[in-house]
Model the fold of this input.
Amino acid sequence: MMNDFLTDQQMASLVEAIQTAEDYSSGEIRIHIDSNTEGNNAEIAFEVFKRLCKDKTIAKNAVLFHVNFEQKYLTIIGDEGIHEKVDQNFWERMHDRITAEFSKGNFHDGLKNAVLETGLELKKYFPITGENPNELPNEITFS
Done:
């Protein structure tokens, strides 16, 4: 599926950023790009989260970046393990920074920096101990 906001190279760069960020911690990060939603973005994002992330990691430490570029809309959702540890202010500040980048048209950089920063934040709470299996795919998904 093509989108007008990211080139193929930028998409590949985001997948690499996910791999890098996941090497920092046992957490898992997903990016979903939604080009269809006309309705409630937050509700749609939660449905996608339930399908792609919820309860699919042992430590319940998956994070979803749900993006609708057309609407410059971003939802960040973390599983229960994330909510227990990571301060809500962290996500609110990140959300504000990413949407500010989006408003300037910096879709790739805004997302990439957020993914890498999330990896570093998760490292504080979900350090790697022993094996670090990749519990969820790193590919970007679309709807």
